[in-house]
Automatic annotation (TrEMBL):
Active-site residues, record numbering mapped to chain: D88 (proton donor/acceptor), K151 (schiff-base intermediate with acetaldehyde), K181 (proton donor/acceptor)
CDD domains in the cross-refs: DeoC (cd00959)
Entry's family note: Belongs to the DeoC/FbaB aldolase family. DeoC type 1 subfamily.
Localization terms from the record: Cytoplasm
Name this protein carries in UniProt: Deoxyribose-phosphate aldolase
HAMAP family xref list: DeoC_type1
Length: 221
């Protein structure tokens, strides 16, 4: 995979609570200069202008997921109205841990209805905080609710971020019907390549430049 091809798998991400308007503008400019697929920001960053060819991803119910479905739906609807191309929503982890997958599905469906296709909906299941059984159940709920992607992590949970095991399990569960986004703790070229090798088609990165520079330095393409 060439550096340009790797860059096109990346949602270049800035979700720090302390991010300023200048920080967000810089992240957008960096995403565009690196050839990333999208830039991922918080809802309060909107509205923003992004260059042609760069998608705008906005998080929803972030980072805890402990919001009423109606609140998540409203947040997604506002984000789309303000220019979001893609929505990354967080599920209610407690519902997944308790096996209440119908509730997980209803939560996701509320956001899907508020942000219908062609808006891309990615569902963050916080895989490091779930058992394998719950990962599978959450992925199945996302598929049933009409999501486009399942995503490993917010990057904010103390349990950790993406793992090769979780990505592989998620890919095994959704097959080619949905795509898998790996995010959280991917800080090296080796990490990125491992996640793509396990079945991810999109990466959530904040260290995009460092990873691409490392790829060029190593000539690993």
């Amino acid at each position: 995979m060439s550096p340009a091809a790797l860059a096109r798998t990346v949602d270049h991400t800035l979700l720090k609570p302390e991010a300023t308007t200048a920080d967000i503008d810089a992240a957008i400019a960096e995403a565009a200069s690196l050839g990333a697929y999208s830039v991922c920001v918080s809802p309060s960053a909107l509205p923003v202008e992004v260059p042609s060819g760069l998608k705008l991803t906005v998080v929803c119910g972030f980072p805890s997921g402990k919001h009423q479905p109606e609140a998540k739906a409203a947040e997604a609807r506002i984000a789309v109205a303000q220019g979001a191309d893609e929505i990354d929503m967080v599920i209610d982890l407690g519902a997944a841990r308790e096996g209440r997958y119908d509730d997980v599905e209803a939560d996701i469906r509320a956001v899907r209805e508020a942000a219908p296709q062609p808006i891309v909906l990615k569902v963050i299941i916080e895989s490091a905080a779930l058992s394998d059984e719950a990962i599978v159940g959450a992925c199945r709920a996302a598929e049933a609710a009409g999501a486009d992607f399942v995503k490993t992590s917010t990057g904010f949970h103390p349990a950790g971020g993406a793992s090769v095991h979780a990505v592989a399990l998620m890919k095994q569960t959704v097959g080619d019907r949905l795509e898998v986004k790996a995010s959280g703790g991917i800080r090296s070229l080796a990490d990125a390549e491992a996640m793509l090798g396990a079945g991810a088609t999109r990466l959530g990165l904040s260290a995009t430049r460092a990873i691409l520079d490392d790829q060029v330095a190593q000539g690993s393409y």
